[in-house]
Design a protein that fits this description.
By secondary structure, this protein is α/β, with parallel strands linked by helices. It has 14 helices and 13 strands. Strands 3-2-1-4-5-6-7 form a seven-stranded parallel beta sheet, sandwiched between helices. Strand 4, helix 4 and strand 5 form a beta-alpha-beta unit. The longest helix is centred in the last third of the chain and has 21 residues.
Length: 367
Amino acid sequence: MRIMYLTESMRWSGGAQQLFGMALALQKRGHEMVLACQPGSDILARAQTAGLETEVVRMRQDYDFPAAVRIARALRRRRVELLHAQHSTAHALGLLAAAFTRVPVFAVTRRVIFPLRTHIFSRLKYLSRRIDGYVAISEAVRQELLKGGVRAARIEVIPSVMDAPKASPEEGRRLRQELGLDPARPVITTVANYSDFKGQDYLVQAAADVVQAFPLAQFLLVGRDTERLGERVERLGLKGAVHLAGFRTDVPRVLAASDFFVFPSLQEAAGTALREAMAAGLPCIGARVGGIPESIADGDTGLLVPPADSPALARAILQMLRAPAQARAMAERGRAWVESHFSLSAVSPRMEAFYTRLLSGAQDGRG
């Protein structure tokens, strides 16, 4: 198949990582892949380094007519059979480009759990008959699409994949030294760019309770703008116990430097960072929201806590700190679960089968 992935993403993120990994996996499976993306974007640089074909298109906003025309020209020139929009603006531009070119198949991935808006422009965007199929990255996302009026037959749940490289224990030890983490004390980590809905504020509050009961605990928060939590950390007297590392590209080393992983999001479509931590063999705690329970079975592959509940989060962390053997057993079951369900080798054939079905349907005529 000749497939184009379309994304407006500028920064490296979970979604960018997902589509990049899938594009490379499908290329290895013999498909002709091309990535249409923004000039100067992180994913463009990575794609060029990896030898992935690219089309550079400036995408300013939804329904950017000149951008849609450039995408349509690329579709014609490359004789693309399937256009797959990976993010929201790409979705809108892909609709226009698909209409201009009559590309056989147009698919859209929905990566967020926000409800669909009900105004006329949103309904035109999401309920258009020009969309042959949706990929929902979790069952929770599928439910939101259904609530928004998308027909069940058009939605396929294909989970976010995680195929991050693993770092060695020695690399983890070196990173602890670089970050000033005590090698003899347990490290509880979260990885997410700072945002109100990522729940880092609740984790810092929970850290105060944990450190009071278990003084050896130390916390590591990694992600863009996590430094904004510095004032709260100082106010709670946690400066020596909570480390704010900011944005890092060496997440495998971060996980190798950690003993536990916490994912306190208030809303989450899937939780790729959580799955990477589970694949790395870390005991994990997640909030019971969105797609997180699709990865963590409470008490079996990790622990679940209510969202926005710092005391409950502190209790779960203390439970793992005080029962390390039990935590390690959950971690091993979690590692086996994500590797069998969310690895690229497990998920890429499902994406391929989805595309094959859509192309077959297009050849038979749209229903």
